[in-house]
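tool_call predict_complex ligand=PRP
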Amino acid sequence: MNFNYMKQTTQNSSSPGEDNLKIAVQKSGRLFEGSMQLLKECGIEISNGNNPVRPGHPVGQLRVQSPNFPIEVFFLRDDDIPEYVQDAVADIGFVGENVVREKNKKVETIEKLGFGKCRLSIAVPKNGVLQSVNDLAGKKIATSYPVILTDYLEKKNISAEIHEISGSVEIAPRIGLADAICDLVSSGSTLFSNELKEIETILASEAVLIVDKKISPQKKFILDKLLFRIRSVKKAKNNKYVLLNAPNDRIGIICNLLPGMRSPTILPLAEPGWSSVHSVINEADFWNVIEQLKANGAQGILIIPIEKMIE
Ligand code: PRP
Ligand code: ZN
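tool_result ok
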């Protein structure tokens, strides 16, 4: 642990830990594991009593102090996280965009976290008469997202009745409670097993980092350190390290395909006329670039995951 750093961030507080950054994360559910995994990849240890908090092992305590970073984790219900951050009970939170939009609290979203991807969709019985959102006029829609759904229906000029329920939304059509539902879809298996089909996506969502708008400068200092780590982890995930052998007369073309962090590293091979090229490649262009590399004579291409990427 960097003791000087800890001293610096807590020097003005009477009780140790007062100036810790307080982060709210989901206690259990779709974002719990991703949140714990991200903190771990940022080198931040979170222990649950004597046991480290690990994916698949839900936490017992609601409040846990990290032993190696000035951060304290509050484990809460995801629906409550925006309000706790707005009210400065927590300084920041990891939560789904769906919850942020629905709760509509005064918090700032500063970073997408790249996990917990899902969508909020309207779904109807698979073999029923409803086929599109225009068929929903005068119908009843069950949802836990009345705010987002109302907004959507108003924009589309559809007047339907919204029936708000807090859970098990997918069974509403089968028990005659509603004609359609508006709910989160991730793998789609809940819709499938309830014989429902999606007819419209109204929001694409993933986990985001939200921040109290009145965060203090001391806590902002810790937040910036955390953000730097989060961005390095995210960047590493979006990129791969690539190593290949190329004929010397093709090096120019191949380097243009591989810009790397600055420019590729080129080392001569023992075999005359050949070099080894090392670079970084973006996940999004991955297959496209690989095809072009091969077409330009690259051989022995190795793709290696990157753990952290710091520029
Ligand atoms: C959502 C939603 C569905 C399920 C869909 O609930 O209400 O039940 O996930 O996921 P699938 O497409 O992978 O089957 P969630 O887990 O977010 O629980 P919560 O509403 O209680 O927060
Ligand atoms: Zn929830």
